[in-house]
Amino acid sequence: MTTDNLGRKVKQLEHDVLEIYELLSGITTTQGQHSVQLAGLRGRLDEHTVQLTGLRGRLDEHTVLLEQLRAESMQHGSRLNGHDNRFDRIDQRFEQVDQRFEQVDQRFDKVDQSLDEILTLLRAS
After folding, report:
1. What is the DSSP string of 22-37?
2. Helices within the chain (DSSP H only)
3. How far apart are CA 120 and CA 114, in angstroms?
4. According to the model, what pLDDT value does residue 1 have?
5. Half-sphere exposure of 13 (CA within 13 A, CB side)
């Protein structure tokens, strides 16, 4: 190997080393930018976590309220069933009263017939 070749190789290696340092410098700059971006994203993620935690709390509150409404609805349903049963019994009693009125009406019809017959006989005599 000649000294000229050796000198060229050394210069080439120096040039390669300088290019590597420039590449590393660019990589370091890019890593710094990415670190800043990641920190910003971490902040936004923390904000979203706080918001989601708040929403989860509100959802839990709504779940409790819905369960209370369901329980109240079931109580109202039970009460309405009780009222329905009472109305059924009242309807039965009205049917019985209606039957009795029909019987009384039939008896009055018989009394009216008897009175008409009596009046007819009295007028005839």
Report:
1. HHHHHHHHHHHHHHHH
2. 3-124
3. 10
4. 66
5. 6
Q: Which one-letter amino acid corresponds to residue 81? A: N
User: pTM value?
Assistant: 0.52
The token pair at 62 is 């709504």
The tokens of 109 are what?
A: 């019809």
Dump pLDDT digits (tens) for 24-75: 999 999 999 999 999 999 999 999 999 999 999 999 999 999 999 999 999 9
Distance between CA atoms of residues 117 and 125, nearest Å: 12
Residue 72 and residue 66: Cα distance in Å, rounded? 10
Confidence class for position 18, pLDDT limits 50, 70, 90: very high
The residue behind tokens 């019809």 is 109
Structure tokens at 41: 């994203």
- Distance separating alpha carbons of residues 125 and 109, to the nearest angstrom: 24
Give the whole-angstrom CA distance, residue 112 versus residue 118. Answer: 10
Residue closest to 74 by CA, chosen among 66, 86, 63: 66
